[in-house]
Amino acid sequence: MAKTAQKHRDPDHRRAAAAAPPKPVPAVPSNAAAHDDTDITALDLPPAPLTPEMEAYFAKCEEKLGFVPNVLKTYGFDMAKLAAFVAMYNDLMLAPSNLGKLEREMIAVAVSSHNRCYYCLVAHGAAVRQLSGDPVLGELMVMNYRAAPLSPRHRAMLDFAVKLTAEPWTVEDADRARLRAAGFSDRDIWDISAVAAFFNMTNRVASATDMRPNTAYHAQAR
Amino acid sequence: MAKTAQKHRDPDHRRAAAAAPPKPVPAVPSNAAAHDDTDITALDLPPAPLTPEMEAYFAKCEEKLGFVPNVLKTYGFDMAKLAAFVAMYNDLMLAPSNLGKLEREMIAVAVSSHNRCYYCLVAHGAAVRQLSGDPVLGELMVMNYRAAPLSPRHRAMLDFAVKLTAEPWTVEDADRARLRAAGFSDRDIWDISAVAAFFNMTNRVASATDMRPNTAYHAQAR
Amino acid sequence: MAKTAQKHRDPDHRRAAAAAPPKPVPAVPSNAAAHDDTDITALDLPPAPLTPEMEAYFAKCEEKLGFVPNVLKTYGFDMAKLAAFVAMYNDLMLAPSNLGKLEREMIAVAVSSHNRCYYCLVAHGAAVRQLSGDPVLGELMVMNYRAAPLSPRHRAMLDFAVKLTAEPWTVEDADRARLRAAGFSDRDIWDISAVAAFFNMTNRVASATDMRPNTAYHAQAR
Amino acid sequence: MAKTAQKHRDPDHRRAAAAAPPKPVPAVPSNAAAHDDTDITALDLPPAPLTPEMEAYFAKCEEKLGFVPNVLKTYGFDMAKLAAFVAMYNDLMLAPSNLGKLEREMIAVAVSSHNRCYYCLVAHGAAVRQLSGDPVLGELMVMNYRAAPLSPRHRAMLDFAVKLTAEPWTVEDADRARLRAAGFSDRDIWDISAVAAFFNMTNRVASATDMRPNTAYHAQAR
Amino acid sequence: MAKTAQKHRDPDHRRAAAAAPPKPVPAVPSNAAAHDDTDITALDLPPAPLTPEMEAYFAKCEEKLGFVPNVLKTYGFDMAKLAAFVAMYNDLMLAPSNLGKLEREMIAVAVSSHNRCYYCLVAHGAAVRQLSGDPVLGELMVMNYRAAPLSPRHRAMLDFAVKLTAEPWTVEDADRARLRAAGFSDRDIWDISAVAAFFNMTNRVASATDMRPNTAYHAQAR
Amino acid sequence: MAKTAQKHRDPDHRRAAAAAPPKPVPAVPSNAAAHDDTDITALDLPPAPLTPEMEAYFAKCEEKLGFVPNVLKTYGFDMAKLAAFVAMYNDLMLAPSNLGKLEREMIAVAVSSHNRCYYCLVAHGAAVRQLSGDPVLGELMVMNYRAAPLSPRHRAMLDFAVKLTAEPWTVEDADRARLRAAGFSDRDIWDISAVAAFFNMTNRVASATDMRPNTAYHAQAR
């Protein structure tokens, strides 16, 4: 994170601006994402040197996506933390599972919508649009999955994920039974739960640090 | 609303589909908005003949937007209700005010985000993108206005609108004082309140009827 | 709104009084509604000249009710806003509908009770007392509609209206199905929804402005 | 509780009525309190013989109020429970305290409003009207104490009582400090807390048993 | 409460400590309960002389438990209040009932867990451990009763008690019917309700006064 | 998970038991944790062969703790998932940080208390008792951290962690500023956030699977 970017986030600076007399016709923010690619969190954590493994991984991201997701750069201040995050993320979202990749992304977005996490909604909303080839499905996951015309399987899956997000202490046998009735195996229940739980973690890391999504996501697969 | 569309919404029909054995690799919904332009609510309310005034208004919509917003078609089963809705909407969102049109749309979306209203988030999210020329600002209003880099004026405006949405019974002198401190006049406070209150109405009409947004909104001003 | 009244609302004035040493036996407020007929909101919005149409309407109110409801005086700073409000209100609450006028007022009060809106509970609680000839029914709607001995029809109607008020994002086909099972048509569902939604608007306008009910309501139909 | 009354409450009976085809123009409940003086709870707990002490107390109620409050009749199935309730109630609400009787009743109603307890709102709302000589103050406590023009002392008192009701786990030194700053002694803090806590008990006994208030309360001190 | 103890609670004192520069390796609190047996509430309410009856009762506590529960010492500033509390407590928790003493303590803890009441969780958690001879059952009631392997009877009992705690305004015939279906009589429903309601009172007295549990409870029946 | 254990969890089995006539004096559960060491989740996920690395890790657990924590056995159905979990857990809870190990465990328990997660409260409550040498501190973290006599540093740390747990969407600059004012560096803020976020994940994995804590934890460090 460059110094200038850090200054931009300085709350005192903002407050000083606030003290100026408000104008009758207020300026519209011209580019709300102006700093999102350079000033990626509210914490000043200088990047550590990348390990060869992570250097290769970042290069692969650049090649495949055209950029390194900001969440990886954020974890990049500490190679052990970055490696642990990447390992868990890739296992959950990409490893073999009866849940398709799109289904896992749908869970990611429905959970992030409950938690109103800007970073994850942008990044994984784009993934839903891309994997489904259906931009509107991405919007529905972001806005209210209950408004989407879902199969009973997908509705049960997201109902479980969102209940687990909102009131985990009330999840019980009856909830697992509903998943089984919708055709999910015990392993599938694990995968739904683990993905929902993981985004409950990352949503909070993102909110705690004001993590900004790469601007490239916004226009993807519209 | 055509008969076929109505059938599509039949919950028994959906449930019958659910009883089929779930497939290991489940079909992805290929077009979540497939019926949104033809099957615009869950209620079967046949359109009334348009009054000349409303016919002219619908024509103006077609000309300016390229389509008649589904909310107007929804109210179109009763000309008195349609006229009352149009009069109030146009006064609130378009009549002279110290609040700019973009500001009013920002309130609309922040309120609709709290209420997770699919119709209003789609339609007014598009309006924020269009009026601001900043697609990301639209996303921020939809996802979490607190994550946006707002001026103190706009932050105070949206904080008031969302508090009024979430817990109207706790709004008091101190809340109005915060708006005044941010430079808003008493008339401005009225306008902020009236717009926020109006979308608390329309969000509920939309949710109560499962109102679907015109598909044209999704790609606008991305 | 007279100047004196405005002064009465001055929060600094109140705070000054607070700084005085508290008395061992504190004075009881002798008339909590002392200013409610003169100092009707917390906003200083001087009345506009009434249009002939509105002048006639206010005269009709005086004749029928003995007073002009404060909500109308509040909107009276702008004739376009007043006319739009009156048109929508009268259509919703008085136009032909399968819902009786009492039923619409019951919805108004149950919604306003959820939102703890002082103005609407006073004004529409009086309407329920008057239209039903049953003062206790008015109290029940204000306090907790679930404690009232309601017909299944009325219970379903109010359950829908209050759920739509509290968590509109969760209203779905199953909720509409419950209304249909209780004998309501699609048009009836619209009317229930529209009335509930409207009071979610007016509750917020009233709370945002600290709107005070005309004192005459309190003793009506007790 | 007479047998007929019990039958009246039979939920199966109600459900049978519900199965009948709903009528187009539904009957309005003509007297929502028709059974409130005879059918005072949903539990069938036959009265025990009154002890001489309680017989005298009931007689005193009849003399002073014109009736025995239904809460006392409810507890009347067990003399030990009745005596314990009466002792605690009378100490809290009537024994010497720096809090006036009206102040204690204001706490009772504000707490009962948060808990939406029909019995307590009716009975203690009447007490506020009577003790203050101000019917509107009673309405304000029932509907939303935040809308009442209260002294800083009374506002601090009710804010504490309602916070203690809504989220007792968050009450801390800072909350007690606010009461002290408003002029309350440690003993006063006890009294505020004890009264608020007591109504959190009685609200729940009343809701758990569907306790009905004596009809005489409704018209008192209007 | 000794003067020193009172000083210990002084928030200014704490704040002064806070102003000191934070140390890189912060001290761990060595004994979080250091003052719990001497400094039992945040209020300075000097003990009143015990009545002979209460003196005997305190002596019996010392004999049976080895100490006088701090809640009794707290009420000891006023003999009428202490006597009323003791009478109600003993009737509810010890008098004959179809509910066993352990069942009543399970309700006490499940309710106190919802309200996160430190005093009651410590004191009544110990009682559950002792009466059941099962330390883990005590932990389950404290942490989340839904995670305990309960009989349908006990689950229904605690579900009712916790719903009555969390949202008393929604308790209705259907909730009582569930208790009856689980084998509870109307008198049992009263007892469940009365115990749950009582702890909703004491939880709030304890939270309002920062009541500390006797340290002896912690190690009991582990 | 043995077959017998799985049978024990069978909900149909439980329901059959429920259908038996309820006994007047119901049996007390004699050992609520009877199956916790053998029947560790509600999912039937047979263990995979341990990798040499994980075999060594499990052996180290046995040696140090006397048992393998059930969470590790739970993840043991898939070596990639187990390895990713262990790597992240050990980095967060054991790697160098300005936050002491006890502080990280305090965050773990305060977060798990908000989420009422039985597994994590038992396992990490024991860790707080052990690391602090103060059994009561463990209880306080489980029951209500706000009732603990914490340093301003620790209070700020837990307030942030619990707010991030309860309402992550409201965490902003002002919250981070409070941590900085309490002496925390940006790296410390990361560590607090990452630990709090991680337990928001594990709490949900545990609740989703009904994960049972090893019985050995209960008696540790009492």
**Mind describing the biggest β-sheet of chain A?**
none
Oligomeric state of shown chains: homohexamer
Question: Regions of chain A with pLDDT < 50 over 5+ consecutive residues?
Answer: 1-7, 10-25
Instruction: Indicate the proportion of strand residues of chain A.
Output: under 5%
Instruction: Report the radius of gyration of chain A as a whole number of Å.
Output: 19 Å
Order of helices and strands of chain A: HHHHHHHHHHHH
Contiguous helical run count of chain A: 12
Structural class by sheet pairing and helices of chain A: mainly alpha
If you average the pLDDT of chain A, what whole number results?
90
Shape of chain A: globular
Strand tally of chain A: 0
What fraction, in percent, of the residue positions of chain A are helical?
A: 55-70%
Distance between the termini of chain A: 30 Å
Largest interface: A-B, 58 and 57 residues
What features would you describe in this structure?
- The structure is a homohexamer of 222-residue chains.
- Chain A is mainly α and 222 residues long.
- Chain A is built from twelve helices and no strands.
- In chain A, helix 6 packs antiparallel against helix 7 and helix 9 (152-166) runs antiparallel to helix 10 (173-181).
- Mean pLDDT of chain A is 90; it is low at 1-7 and 10-25.
- Chains D and E meet through helix 5, helix 9, helix 10 and helix 11 of D and helix 5, helix 9, helix 10 and helix 11 of E.
